[in-house]
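User: Okay, second chain of the day. Same drill as before: sequence in, structure tokens out.
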Amino acid sequence: MSDIRFYDTSSLLMARESLFNTQDRFVISSITFKELEYIKTANNKDPETKYAARLLLRLLDEYSEQYIVVIHTLDNEVVIKDKSLDINNDTCILSDAIYYNNNEAIDSVIFVTNDLSLKHIANLFFGHSMIESVTEEVDNYFGYKEVNVSDTLLADFYQENDKNWFDLNVGEYLIIKDATNEIVDVRCWTGESHRYLKYDNFNSNWFGKIKPYDVYQKLFFDSLSNNTITLVKGPAGSGKS
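Assistant: Same drill. Structure tokens below.
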């Protein structure tokens, strides 16, 4: 039997869309659904993480034929207790992976987790060769994306303002350009919709009234007005002060 991957919740959140772009089947625990439901409304989670959980739940619903769910039972936890390990959501998911490896896909499960502690525990049952992590993408985040759109796509964008058309992160800005590369609109993705930007001048005690010179400074002004922390970088003379 060919290898099959069993994802814990953290690795599944990291893989997200890329996982569903393949035809490979995978396995998850029913505990993962409980964790995702908690994450999407938890007060102690940031908006981006909560949005990622909601998006993942939609993908799991849309591609329900691509994965197998192992229903967690107390019997599955016996292997964890036999090692005198704590029972928590992580080890419960691991126990479900062990059950599936021992009863359904005999010695064919690759356990996927990005949790270092859980990796060490999983090694007791699977060995290093059967444990993987999701490769973390290099962060090329600039705080905004520039896209060229057709008139048709622009019309669709305005009709479905609550759809994340361009896979933006929460708080990321969108500079929309037409076919001639002219800027036609600028928005900010809130996790629920694309917020319209108001370009108000700044009144500064040091410099008096400040007016943004280009669209990038407008984004900077908007971020200063709406976020507790704003980071900006640029060469000397680019207007950072």
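The two ends are 62 Å apart (CA to CA).

User: Thanks, on to the next one.
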